[in-house]
Design a protein that fits this description.
This protein is α+β, with helices and mostly antiparallel strands. Helices cover about 30% and strands about 25% of the residues. The chain has one domain (about 25-200): 3-Layer(bab) Sandwich (minor pseudopilin epsh fold), CATH 3.55.40.
Length: about 200
């Protein structure tokens, strides 16, 4: 009786033939879950990176406008009572814009003006339209300029050479190339007010 109990006890404690690893089904399920999680992470990361990149491009535009503004308020007179104007010229649908001195005093950028520098946005982005305070397109023309003149920081918004300035604030679009959406990864606005305040905003 004692021998049988001892044999039975030892048999129950002896290791079996089952492996301690995963079964094929468990492994496939685990791989599927990991891939799903990674897909969500990559998707969110791509949208986040796009939004950050677009925001950086919008700040490049804002910095260029501020540069033109500071050049204007610190400039000397070219002649008695003749103040220098500086501005930024944009063409929608392009990847570059120009900081210029309005040498011929026509309130717009022409080939006779002095180019301070040309700024290029990233290859995935482009300049958009000029929008008015309600977010509507100000004009069908693709070119526009924002100018500054001493002694104030005030901005002037010009749609054509020789045309009168329009009322601010205005919004310069910076857009991801090929998109028409309004999300933070698609478009950002650079707001410029009449008194010359410049800021980067989310499109509304």
């Amino acid at each position: 009786m004692v021998g049988m109990s001892s044999h039975s006890f030892l048999r129950r404690r002896a290791p079996g033939n089952r492996s301690g690893g995963f079964t094929l089904v468990e492994l496939l399920v685990t791989i599927g879950i990991v891939m799903a999680v990674m897909g969500v992470v990559f998707l969110k990361n791509g949208a986040f990176s796009g939004a950050v990149g677009l925001r950086n491009q919008a700040f490049e535009v804002a910095f260029a406008l501020r540069e033109a503004q500071l050049l204007a308020v610190s400039a000397n007179e070219t002649a008695p009572n003749q103040l220098q104007r500086y501005g930024v010229h944009f063409t929608s649908g392009t990847r570059a814009f120009t900081i210029f001195q309005d040498t011929n005093n026509d309130n717009f950028y022409t080939t006779s003006d002095t180019v301070v520098r040309t700024v290029r946005v990233g290859e995935d982005y482009e300049m958009g339209r000029l929008l008015n305070a309600s977010g509507s397109v100000t004009d069908n023309d693709t070119e526009y300029a924002i100018l500054f003149q001493k002694p104030n920081f005030d901005a002037r918004f010009i749609l054509d050479a020789g045309s009168a300035a329009i009322t601010g604030p205005v919004y310069v679009e910076v857009r991801k190339t090929g998109t028409t959406g309004t999300g933070v990864e698609d478009v950002r606005w650079v707001e410029v007010t009449g008194p010359g305040q410049i800021s980067v905003e989310t499109a509304s």
